[in-house]
Design brief:
The protein is of the alpha+beta class and 469 residues long. The chain is 47% helix and 20% strand. The longest helix has 21 residues. The N and C termini lie far apart (101 Å).
Length: 469
């Protein structure tokens, strides 16, 4: 019997040896007195929100092992615990064998590990956690409506930033330059040393040179997106400036880089931001240059066509051209004409909305308030032509929305229907989301597309400043 037992153990042992010999990395997790029963094993990708799901680990005191036989680039990996919403980050590279031992309910604080680089990384996460009260208090200030410039924000976080930089610098002295931890910490130090200033052209010009966007390990950290975000913070919120930033970033990255489509996706969000002046022109520039005329085939055929279709829609009406006129029925069933209505005012804001849209309930009153302030400040009149952009809405719901938000002073309120003519209106104005705001002058000339209350203010203040000059 004893011989058979020994024999079986030998068989198991010799079966496992080939697995470990072929392994590119081994991860073993032991957990005692934890609140979660499982953890998700993931690889960081581009930012905090993107990751590659690798495996699900059952948490046991005896331990769970994952043996990977495929080569990896190396970067930041993490365990996410679904019940407590905690996570533990660690460095994982080819040929690494990582042991994580978790003892207790505060996972970051109670975890120990075997590799020196991960001991440093865990200590760093513990330091971050001890300084998290700065983030909490800052978020509260923002919630209360306080505004911070880039310099004021840097001063607010100075103690936290200095502590983290000091820790990272000390760790870097003891870390190999090509390690993923070294790539990550050097990137964070360069980011923390930067305070974007839209007038500091020298700092803007030298910023991207501090980073190697084509370093493969950088992509497998949450810091890569931060570089692009920080760089754009050197530019004003207007498309003709941001497109220069767009071109500079893409000049710095190879088409074959796995980050290329992620950066493109980020820029689509930038140019859909209504606070960016002439955002639709910037978005059209992005699609024209990096989809329609791009030799880099980073999009599949279907997605490329979707962008080209979108380009057709957003280029249907151009800034400084006559806007498409709208002739629609108001709440009394009387036809109202957008261009005729616009003749009564210096400017008119064309508004597409849905009474059931939660954003509309916030954005329309905000726009109304900004318009009233601009009228007083600039001594002008601004009409509001609202289009109920839900063809099958109950009329009582529509009318209740208008009454609740007092949309009656210099307002014309009309409703779109489901016939083909009105579908062409929605296509022309790309009005398939809500709310949307356009600006026209008294002659019906389109001045602003998909604007926000903030960009409306900037457009009109700029126009009147130019007029006075």
């Amino acid at each position: 019997m004893k011989f058979n037992t020994i024999y079986r153990y030998c068989i198991v042992f010799f079966c496992i040896i080939p697995l470990f010999s072929k392994a590119q990395f081994v991860l073993k997790v032991k957990a005692n007195k934890v609140q979660d029963s499982i953890a998700y094993f993931r690889a960081s990708l581009f930012d905090d929100k993107n990751y590659i799901p690798k495996d699900t680990i059952k948490l046991m005191s005896t331990g769970t092992s994952i043996i990977n036989t495929k080569s990896i680039v190396g970067g930041i990996y993490f365990l996410y615990f679904p019940k407590t919403k905690q996570n533990i980050k660690f460095i994982l590279e080819d040929k690494d064998t990582v042991l994580l031992v978790i003892n207790g309910t505060d996972y970051v604080q109670s975890t120990t590990t075997n590799l020196l680089k991960n001991k440093r990384f865990l200590a760093y996460q513990q330091l971050e956690k001890s300084l998290s009260h700065y983030d909490t208090s800052f978020a509260q200030e923002i919630k209360l409506g306080k505004k911070f410039s880039q310099i004021q924000k840097a001063n607010y976080f100075k103690n936290k930033t200095d502590s983290l930089i000091a820790f990272r610098k000390l760790a870097l002295v003891r870390t190999k330059p090509n390690d993923a931890l070294s790539v990550y910490f050097n990137t964070l130090n360069a980011l923390d040393a930067s305070i974007p200033n839209k007038r500091d052209y020298n700092a803007r010009a030298s910023f991207l040179k501090k980073f190697d966007l084509n370093e493969p390990k950088l992509f497998f950290t949450p810091a890569m997106k931060q570089i692009v975000v920080e760089y754009l913070s050197f530019y004003p919120l207007q498309a003709d400036s941001l497109t220069k930033g767009l071109d500079d970033v893409f000049k710095s990255i190879l088409c074959t880089n796995k980050a290329y489509p992620f950066i493109f996706d980020y820029f689509t969000k930038v140019f859909k931001n209504r606070d960016v002046l002439n955002n639709t022109e910037g978005y059209a520039y992005l699609i024209n240059k990096y989809v329609k005329n791009n030799t880099c085939a980073f999009l599949d055929k279907r997605n490329k066509q979707l962008f080209l279709d979108e380009l057709t829609q957003i280029e249907a009406q151009k800034i400084n051209d006559t806007s498409l006129n709208l002739i629609l029925l108001d709440s009394s069933g009387i036809q109202k004409d957008l261009h005729q209505f616009a003749k009564q005012f210096n400017y008119t804001v064309l508004i597409f909305f849905d009474p059931n849209c939660s954003h509309c309930k916030v954005e329309l009153p905000k726009m109304d308030s900004v318009i009233k302030n601009l009228e007083k400040e600039l001594l002008i009149t601004i009409g509001k032509f609202t289009v109920c952009n839900e063809p099958n809405i109950d009329k009582n719901t529509w009318k209740s929305f208008l009454q609740e938000h007092n949309l009656n002073d210099r307002y014309e309120n009309v409703m779109i229907s489901s016939n083909n003519d009105n579908l062409s209106i929605r296509k022309a104005y790309d009005a398939f989301t809500n709310p949307l705001f356009y600006l026209i002058d008294k002659d019906g000339i389109l001045i602003g597309k998909k604007i926000s209350a903030n960009s409306l203010k900037r457009i009109l203040l700029k126009n009147f400043s130019n007029f006075k000059q």
